[in-house]
Amino acid sequence: MVAMDLFRSEEMSLVQLIIPAESAHDTVTYLAELGLIQFKDLNPDKSPFQRTYANQVKRCGEMARKLRYFHDQITKAGRTATFTATSDRSIDLDELETKLTELEAELLEINANSDKLQRSHSELVELQLVLHKASEFFSSAKNSAKNVQQRSAEDKGSSVEDGIERPLLQEQTETSKSVRLGFISGVVPKAKAASFERILFRATRGNMFLKQALIQDAVTDPATGEKVEKTVFVVFFAGERAKTKVIKICEAFGANRYPFPEDPNRQWQMKSEVETRLSELQNTLDAGTHLKDNVINNIGSNLDHWTVMVRREKAVYHTLNMLSIDVTRKCLVAEGWCPVFAKPKIQDALQRAAHDSNSQVNTIFQVLHTKESPPSYFETNKFTNAFQEIVEAYGVGRYQEANPGCFTIVTFPFLFAVMFGDWGHGICLLLGALYLVLNEKKLGKQKLGDIMEMAYGGRYVILLMAIFSIYTGFIYNEFFSVPFGIFGGTAYRCPDPQYSVENCPVASTSGLEKWSYEPYAFGVDPVWHGSRSELPFTNSLKMKMSILLGISQMNLGILLSYFNARYFRSALDVWYQFIPQLLFLNALFGYLSFLIVLKWCQGSKPDLYHVMIYMFLSPTGDLEDNQLFSGQSYVQIVLLIIALVAVPWMLFPKPLLLRRQHMQKLQGRHYTALSRSDYSSSDDEGTGEHDEEEFEFGEVLVHQMIHTIEFVLGAVSNTASYLRLWALSLAHAQLSAVFYERVLMFAWAYSNPVIRLIGLIVFAFVTFGVLLLMETLSAFLHALRLHWVEFQNKFYQGDGYKFKPFSFNTCSEEDDA
Questions:
Q1: How does this chain sit within the bilayer (predicted)?
Q2: Domain range 112-143+180-285, CATH architecture
Q3: Of 150, 452, 624, 781, which is least surrounded by CB within 10 A?
């Protein structure tokens, strides 16, 4: 059922809704909850500010801004918005707007008061530190002065007290003008302390004395509110000019100046006042913090509900602005696309909206007929969605053309596995995919990184890639490049009967001999591993298998073009595109695939390169040892003729027939115009001239020529492109063998357990980094290219546009902006 739903997009209808004005809001809301209608903008010429519901959209935008502000405040407070059972669910938009305005004003006032109080608290803390450090400066200076005066008094016979109280430079002050000494105290950031001292010294020409003390713990800066390491300073100077310079330098360096009294009693009193004010401020701050926590808790319990409500209302009014208003302004006209299966659901939603809004008139629902191309809509689930995204990354499919998504579910992981075939690596990949799948509900609720988000989105793709890799790994018989004889015994034995196959001394030189015609049950016989013909055998096998897979997938693409042509009733595409393309591809490369299978069945040794080359260079030549069946030369001549005829078959008939159909259409239109009035005749003639201008035979012919050349050359290049399956598979196998033999086995050759452990760790890391990450990405990209280019270009136009219904589920945070 899923595959059939994915094969073609859902049938769509263009519908028109005539909605009474009183029920317009409820109608759009119910349709958004349903999420099955894509509205068309019927006011493309109007700017957003000229539309009917511009004021409502502006209101919702303002409320969204307030909600973002609340969210930032909750985040800064270290809280998270939580759902509670007491959340208000009955509030309407007008009440919510009023409530948000009140809460914002309250929160802004609380924050403003808290900032002022915090600034005052930080200033008082700095003042307390200045009082403490500066008092230490002065007391230390006074003690030093006493010691000096004491020594001086002992020499001169005067008392210490007299020396302390006597003015400095008494003899000079008596004869000259006295100079008044002053000082400024404060705090400066530690990072600027050295520059601060240097600039002070230069500005005062050394006529200053600076004393600094580092504060042990970082303090809160009053201006920025951040923790900063600071230093207390006291700078002494002489004169008013020096004071002015020091003040300006303090302002330039962001130093906060604080008063410091010289009187010790005043210092003690000031310290006591500062401590009292700090205690009072701390109590006030605690009360403000408690009040703010209550407001934030109240907001946080309702924030998610309010955010969803505002987001939905804004989306509804945005959609209402896309509707056309009747001249009487009593009803709104809407147009949009919806799936055909959704019509009953939409009509039911319209009836419920009319009933709930108490509208006296129901919404009129009618289907419009149009030639406009509808959007493409595929109903996917969590399993098929990732594969559909892979297809639509190339281009959204045209309406109801064959969708490669349903085939990609199988072909994409299988082609990946052909390049990644190793059941050991497949098991590792499977474990990672199972982790993502089993924990999808838990991971879906978390915010993942970019890479993890991509892996989570493609978890089912990775799961299938891992399962197919295990399958192809059993076919290649590789487990971290080591073969295992799981499916029975080998058909080969050592020529010397006394040796087993594993210990045969000539296994890598002259080789083993075949003793049984019963093949290995499943996959490659393990004895090929390590033999001298291992690489030629696996190369031949994988190369031919790549060609067979490529021709099969390209034929599938051509076959899907037939289903497209049949569905759209285009006989020209069937007869002059599908048939010649099918004949051309299979006459050459289909024949090559037949020879590969025939050669495998017969066990003969003809050179297929020689057969294909001389099929063109010498069609009538003798095949000699390269003949696989009787009459092969005649068959090749017929196939070559078919391939040559298919080229003009694709090129010329379709443009000529399109031109003839166009001329017949014009001729029939002119005949019809003879039996009509002059007015209608002139209209038809104008229409006919317009159609004739649209059809250009030269452009059609050139387009068909390009299409033909592209297919003919692409048949060769696309077939060669599928050889990447062989190349990537060979590279993966050889890298795995090198890591196993040169890293793990090299370390295992030593008996030292430390060396073995190191070798095992290195082997695990290179296997994970190179083979499980880089090789996985490489094989993924190559499988992607094979689907986009080699497969989809045979039938997939990819020029449609995606169905994007108006739904509340798709409303994101970007809608709040």
A1: Multi-pass membrane protein
A2: 2-Layer Sandwich (3.30)
A3: 624
